[in-house]
């Protein structure tokens, strides 16, 4: 590492963590495209709904491809922070890296809860109200456990080897 006062990018964000974020983000989007596609919602609308966190629903839906692109970049940015946060926690608590299937799944539950009941309600997409329980929540929780939390944990384990 150079001694210029800056940490190398590899030290801040190991490649395995970035790869885990790419995998988790892609799996999550593929699930969303399939799930919402069965309900008549296309990929552009899904990505615009992510951008609504920044812009509000009306502006995001009216923005066309530009807001879909913002949603895509935002989605991967959020998942990158999720993967990085797990990696940082696993550095402090090595058991998180030793048991990625267990703790990654638990992390997925936490991610679902935080996104559903904190981030979205406080974002420009939210109305300030907490969402009520929906019949589809168990499926979405399982997806966050297996397709988001576990890849984040596996990436952390690989980075910490």
Description of the structure:
With 161 residues, this protein is an all-alpha fold. The protein is 77% helix and 0% strand. The protein has 8 helices and no strands. It starts with 8 loop residues before the first helix and ends with a helix.
Features:
mainly alpha; 8 helices; 161 residues; single chain
Structural class: mainly alpha
Mean pLDDT over the residues = 94
The shape, in one word, is globular
Helicity level: over 70%
Q: What are the segments in which pLDDT stays under 50 over at least 5 consecutive residues?
A: none
Please work out how many helical segments DSSP would assign: 8
Topology:
Elements (H helix, E strand, L loop, with lengths): L8 H4 L2 H23 L5 H13 L1 H6 L2 H28 L2 H4 L1 H23 L14 H23 L2
Helix pairs in contact: 2-5, 2-8, 3-5, 5-8, 7-8
Short description:
The chain is an all-alpha fold. The protein contains eight helices and no strands.
